[in-house]
């Protein structure tokens, strides 16, 4: 009887197997450093017993070593995948002539779309090397690789070569976002995940918005050394990306169990607070059995659709905002310069929503719904108001851009707060970000060239998808409440942990 009780305790805590584990039930009697998982959910304060000064010093140390480098990597990632639109807007005629874009039907759309095919297909496989080689080497060398690809785009001779390099760009960039989201989630408890993801994502987006201004400045190098301005955009961003990748290889921190910049007391503190929060500080191997289980978890696919919807709006603005601003009535030069302010505005809704989502009970869904309403309102404003109301239409761009980008981090943050086990965290990050690639494909197709500059198909699809997200949020709230009540009665064990409850 004692053996059965011990087995049930370990199973309910969500401790997953290593290669020596039993294959019949998918779980394993792990003793090493997992014996304290029974404290999950029993601490109102997960930092109880530690000096507050020590806690703040340790968390600040982790923040400074982890988030800024990941943010810089994602900043160059966003710039490298989206500056195609800025290069085109800066020297449209030169680019179309050099690459023979005029001669085919929607060749630009095809080039935009091809990035997302390997990006989607390689999201989950790309995470297999993260644990094996370590975040520093895996993500750092991926950044260097796509930087070299970006650099090569400045020397292509036709549209086919550019499309081929876009495929390679998507393959290497597939490693970053799910890897970064997984890495962040292993360092922080649930009450801090959304704010860290928001800082990681939002700071990158803000600087990438300012990158539009930088791209405009680089394009003024037009004619230097016989190269068009659009070529210099790719060349300069490629050099910057390689430099960021080198910094990542040298300084990016790894997973908590491999951290070398913390002393033993600090490492024990990080381990303890994660176990107190959700009991999955110990890494577990991915198996086919667990992979199949995760694939059948419906809530992960709902979170993936939420992320897809936000990514669709984000990519459509990244790729087509210059044309949208031109349709409002701004000149080509002014359209480039006016791309930056909506990304600066992103700081307000993103950090406010993330802070409320983490710190206020039962606000995760409400924050996502609120930003969906901002997207719907803003999209209708910039697309449907009369052309004479130039200022109001531009305000709509602020609302739409703030809403879609805020929900990118909120949706993956809610997902990470709703699961346990490190293998499931890696799988969830990869699945959700892969659906972000689907959103990129949808934006490439929905914002079709023949619909320019108003893009009615893309506009109304954006509105419709965000209405569906609102409905999904309502459904998840009802389901999570129902499951939490069942767990309180002891009729169900959530995420293999008796004390685990869903956050809504």
What is the structure about, briefly put?
With 504 residues, this protein is mostly helical. The protein has 22 helices and no strands. Residues 1-39 have low confidence and may be disordered.
Kindly describe this structure.
The protein is an all-alpha fold. The chain has a single domain, classed as Growth Hormone, Chain: A. It contains 22 helices and no strands.
* Quaternary form: single chain
pLDDT averaged residue by residue: 84
Distance between the termini: 37 Å
CATH superfamily: MFS general substrate transporter like domains
Summary tags:
504 residues, mainly alpha, Growth Hormone, Chain: A, transmembrane, MFS_trans_sf, membrane
Architecture blueprint of SSEs:
Elements: H1 2-12, H2 52-90, H3 92-99, H4 107-114, H5 116-121, H6 123-126, H7 128-133, H8 135-153, H9 159-173, H10 176-187, H11 190-219, H12 229-251, H13 264-277, H14 288-295, H15 298-328, H16 332-337, H17 340-345, H18 347-359, H19 364-384, H20 390-416, H21 422-446, H22 456-489
Helix pairs in contact: 2-3, 2-10, 2-11, 2-12, 2-15, 4-9, 4-21, 8-9, 8-10, 8-12, 10-21, 11-12, 11-18, 11-20, 15-20, 15-21, 15-22, 18-19, 18-20, 19-20, 19-22
Main location: membrane
Protein name: Major facilitator superfamily (MFS) profile domain-containing protein
Subcellular location: Membrane
């Amino acid at each position: 009887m004692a053996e059965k009780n011990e087995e049930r305790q370990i199973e309910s805590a969500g401790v997953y197997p290593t290669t020596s584990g039993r294959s019949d039930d998918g779980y394993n009697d792990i003793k090493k450093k997992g014996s304290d998982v029974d404290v999950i959910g029993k601490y109102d304060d997960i930092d109880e017993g530690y000096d507050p000064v020590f806690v703040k010093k340790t968390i600040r140390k982790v923040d400074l070593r982890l988030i800024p480098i990941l943010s810089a990597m994602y900043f160059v990632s966003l710039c490298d995948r989206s500056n195609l639109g800025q290069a085109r807007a800066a020297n449209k005629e030169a680019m179309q002539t050099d690459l023979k874009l005029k001669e085919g039907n929607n060749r630009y759309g095809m080039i935009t779309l091809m990035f997302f095919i390997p990006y989607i297909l390689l999201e989950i496989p790309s995470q297999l090397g993260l644990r094996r080689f370590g975040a520093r080497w895996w993500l750092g060398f991926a950044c260097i690789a796509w930087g070299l690809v970006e650099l090569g785009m400045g020397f292509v001779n036709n549209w086919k070569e550019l499309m081929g390099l876009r495929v390679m760009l998507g393959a290497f960039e597939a490693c970053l976002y799910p890897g970064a989201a997984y890495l962040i989630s292993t360092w922080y408890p649930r009450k801090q995940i959304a704010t860290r993801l928001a800082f990681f994502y939002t700071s990158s987006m803000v600087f990438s918005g300012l990158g539009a201004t930088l791209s405009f400045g680089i394009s003024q190098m037009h004619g230097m050394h016989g190269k068009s301005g659009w070529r210099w955009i790719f060349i300069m961003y490629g050099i910057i990306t390689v430099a960021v990748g080198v910094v990542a290889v040298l300084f990016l921190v790894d997973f908590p169990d491999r951290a070398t910049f913390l002393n033993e007391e600090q490492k024990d503190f990080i381990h303890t607070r994660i176990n107190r929060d959700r009991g999955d500080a110990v890494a577990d191997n991915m198996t086919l059995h667990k992979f199949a289980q995760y694939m059948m978890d419906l809530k992960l696919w709902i979170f993936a659709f939420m992320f897809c919807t936000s990514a669709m709006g984000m990519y459509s603005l990244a790729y087509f905002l210059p044309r949208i601003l031109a349709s409002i009535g701004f000149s080509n030069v002014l359209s480039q310069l006016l791309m930056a302010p909506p990304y600066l505005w992103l700081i307000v809704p993103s950090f406010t929503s993330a802070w409320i989502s983490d710190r206020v009970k039962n606000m995760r869904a409400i924050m996502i719904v609120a930003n969906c309403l901002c997207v719907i309102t803003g999209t209708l404003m910039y697309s449907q108001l009369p052309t004479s109301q130039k200022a109001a239409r531009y305000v709509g761009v602020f609302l739409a851009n703030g809403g879609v980008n805020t929900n990118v981090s909120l949706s993956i943050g809610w997902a990470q707060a709703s699961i346990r086990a490190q293998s499931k965290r890696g799988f969830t990050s990869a699945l959700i970000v892969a659906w972000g690639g689907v959103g990129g494909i949808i934006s490439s197709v929905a914002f079709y060239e023949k619909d320019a500059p108003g893009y009615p198909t893309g506009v109304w699809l954006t509105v419709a998808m965000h209405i569906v997200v609102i409905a999904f949020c309502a459904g998840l709230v009802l389901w999570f409440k129902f499951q939490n009540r069942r767990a309180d009665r002891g009729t169900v064990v959530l995420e293999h942990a008796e004390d685990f409850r869903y956050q809504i």
